[in-house]
Amino acid sequence: MINTSEPVNRDRREFIGKAAASVALLALAPGVKLVDLVFARPPDQPVSNAMRWGMLIDSSKCAQGCDACVRACDEEFGLERSARRELDAHYIRKLDVRDEQTGRMFSLPMLCQHCEHPPCVDVCPTGASFKRADGIVLVDKHICIGCRYCMMACPYKARSFIHEALHNQKPYAPRGIGTVESCTFCVHRVDRGGTPACVEACAAAGHDAMVFGDLNDAGSDIAQRERATSSQQVRADLGLNTAVRYEGI
Known about the structure:
Oligomer: single chain
Order of helices and strands: HHHEHEEHEEHEEHHEHEE
CATH topology: Alpha-Beta Plaits
Distance between the termini: 39 Å
Number of domains: 1
């Protein structure tokens, strides 16, 4: 059962119900049941809105030329690169940003911002794009029909479409040709008390530019940093209340 923080508008999506049921586009690893993995967590710890997972990224610590977070993400999810990079999935990417007024250059990791009011969820006609009660935004590939409305709606270009046959499937994060995907905050790790792969890799590289935790927990590292420093949201003017915040941009 899909656990969302908001009910699906069934009336709005009724017109493609039969189409969604008939589409058979998934190419999952043998024996993998995607429905068993999307909400991987201890059964005695259900998802609730008591916590909201978030990430704080300090651009002053994000080294230009370092792609440890990207490589860790690729390895974690079995993402493969080719000459046709525009067709490849990316859950996180590094942007080189230049301030036109000061000329200052800095690197900026960009990933799904896990918005409180996600536009990808609003435009999805099947309910495949959804937000969990704890704020993590995901895609249910069982009912994604590949319309890519969510990709057009995302102001962060954080979603990818799977065009071709897949290899190196991970049992905890199955993927399917003809569906859309994006950063999951490594939900398979988080639900077991772990940390996203990108955060772990950034720390291992000695940069410590990423902090992950519960934004609702006043005692968490991320909440304390939020209170002590001045962080910003990318495109805060859109009023999406993103769970990914940045320092030094």
